[in-house]
Amino acid sequence: MKKLNILLSLCLLLCVSAVHAQSSNDTTTAKTFLMLQQTGQFEKAHALLDTLATKTVSAAQLKKAWEEQLVARHGKFIAAHFTSQKEELGYNAVYEKCTFEKNVVDLRVVFSKSHKILGYVVAGITPVAGSGTAK
Question: What is the pTM of this model?
Answer without folding.
Answer: 0.77
